[in-house]
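REQUEST
  id: r-88c1
  op: predict_structure
  target: Leucine-rich repeat-containing N-terminal plant-type domain-containing protein
  payload:
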Amino acid sequence: MTVGIKFLQHLFLLLILFQLEPRVADSNNIIRCIDEEREALLTFKESLVDESGVLSSWGPEDEKRDCCKWTGVGCSNRTGHVIKLEIQPIDFDSFPLRGTISPALLQLHRLTYLDLSLNNFSGSPIPEFIGSLTKLSYLDLSFAEFEGPIPSHLGNLSALQHLDLSLNHLFSAGNLDWLSHLSSLTYLDLGSNNLSRSTDWLQVVGNLPLLTTLYLYRCHLPPIVPLSLSNLNYSTSLQFLELSENNLTNSIYPWLFNASSNLVLLGLDSNLLRGSIPVAFKHMVSVSFLGLASNEFEGGVPDFFGNMCSLTMLNISDNKLRGHFPELIQNLSRFSSLKELYLENNRLNGFTNNSIGQMSKLRTLSLNGNSLI
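RESPONSE
  id: r-88c1
  status: 200
  body:
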């Protein structure tokens, strides 16, 4: 009896150490999908209109019973549980899926990856039950015709590392405090939704410690209130920051220049930035893509752009910048790795001949709308 108890204790310990789960396998030891999860996926399919046959491999027939082989479904090789669901149109000429998202997805208890982007959910809100898929680390619902408030229940997904809700018709009903619960986020894209009511947006995203990618373009972001900067930790993890087409003013600078040491991409096009281009930009030594177009910058084009040795794309078009073009090119060519340079619609003057040849890597140059010869 004692031997039997010790054997069971030993087996139980092994289960804990190796986190083993029951395997669902056939006689050839090949992992098959779990019955409950197959039925959940079929219920999910029934709630959709599939004009292009994206889900044609899904079915109850004997030859289709293994849901781990269905298009867009990924299973654990060890347990057979569905862990990934990636359902999109076959190509850009195909009809997207339409309909609703069935709560049958809640039966996928091990689901960590959900991508339903590029479909058409016909103006419906993002379902509340998605906030109960607490194993998710990846969620992409972008460009899928969702409407309504950005759901705060997504704050329950504490394991999320990647969240993309961009290119929908969503809006913030108030603050974005729910985002502060997603401390594992590395990628956040809320672009082309309306965040005009979220005056706390910077306080929230500025304190996400692991965030490397932040896309908030065309979000109607309100200007920063200087007092809101006092509680920020100034995380330096950000590498890709896109804030174009908003209502940001010079009040963004204190946070921006404290959080910029590792930036590779910075987009500030089409905002309300005024005055001279700040000297602090020269400290962004890692920046490769810099967009400052369509603001209200005045004065000369700063010499320091020529010292930014990582810079491959610079867009300062549609401002009120002055300068002698040959001198500008000479400054930019000092340590230049520039491949794209956009200077149109400013107040530059001078000759263009010979000077451009100093920039040997340049592939794209836009100069129209200046006073050049």
